[in-house]
Amino acid sequence: MRKSLFAMVSVAAAFAMPLGASAQTYPDRAITIVVPFSAGGPTDTVTRLVAEAMSKDLGQQVLVENVGGAGGTLGAARVAEAEPDGYTLLLHHIGMATSATLYRKLPYDTLNAFEYVGLVTEVPMTIVARKDFEPQDFKGLIDYVKAHKDEVTVANAGIGAASHLCGMLFMSAVETPLVTVPYQGTGPAMTDLLGGQVDIMCDQTTNTTKQIQAGTIKAYAVTTPERLDVLPDLPTVAEAGLPNMQVGIWHGLYAPKGTPAEVVDRLSKSLQVALKDENVVARFAELGTTPSPEADATPAALKAKLEGEIQRWQPIIEAAGVYAD
Ligand code: MLT
Fold first, then answer.
1. What number does the ligand 1 atom closest to the CA of 166 have?
2. pLDDT in tens, 137-167
3. What's the gap in Å between 186 CA and the centre of ligand 1?
4. Distance from the CA of 8 to the center of ligand 1, in angstroms?
5. Do residues 118 and 254 share a domain?
6. What domain count does the chain have?
7. pLDDT tens digits along 65-75
8. Long-range contact list for 291-298, CB < 8 A, 24+ apart?
């Protein structure tokens, strides 16, 4: 009897608490960051490193939930509809911008369904293949895919994924459409590449660096202007003759629209602390990337990035004429 009375009083008190008070005591329980791709992939890897460091700063658990499907848009939709209380966040990448054009019936309004917390990192892409794939260099790869376009299979994580975007740039650069094999993330796609079930993939260094260094997959080029310290022998796409394939996969942290400003501010400050965490800096470096600078780990910087990238990719996607719906 006493317990149920106590429970009733606690519930009543919680409802009586003004919203401002909950923002003032934020966070008072575990936070979940939704990753819109499978576990074990590049987005998951980045998020788990950042979540661990934010958890130390915030003094609460920061959990990671993988919600894959539809090139990342299912996970984004989940967060767009979540309670705007700061306890459900989204860590997504360039796909947030490209999906705004690729999906003509998105279940959320990209520019109005989220609050912006800040930019997290910008990750290079690598063009890779199963280790026994015949071509020995990027020129050989281009010649091979042109001669075998109906047989070569390209893995990606669905329309709207970074791997889809980079694959689209590759196919338009070589003027050859190839057979694509979609996955819920490039984590499972990498498993099939390692097993030889799929031929090539364009994926982020946060998922490919260790495999390339171990020789378990073949690598042809990296999409940065300069070669990477962690992969010094890997030529850039410009060196390989395809400068238009330069692309960086920027990642941002978002909250549902309506999340109190003081909560967003607390999250942004925690993200900035996390991006200076020595483990985050060291692990990002091992994986070919760097944390966004403090000035970019802000709501204004992420908002500007997302708006600019939607405008940048819209004509490119419309010219390719590839849509998800
Ligand atoms: C992943 O985390 O699986 C990747 O980001 C998928 C993609 O965008 O290619």
1. 9
2. 999 999 999 999 999 999 999 999 999 999 9
3. 5
4. 45
5. yes
6. 2
7. 999 999 999 99
8. 291/120, 291/121, 292/118, 292/119, 292/120, 292/121, 292/122, 292/250, 296/118, 296/119, 297/118, 297/119, 297/120, 297/268, 297/271, 297/272, 298/118, 298/119, 298/268, 298/272
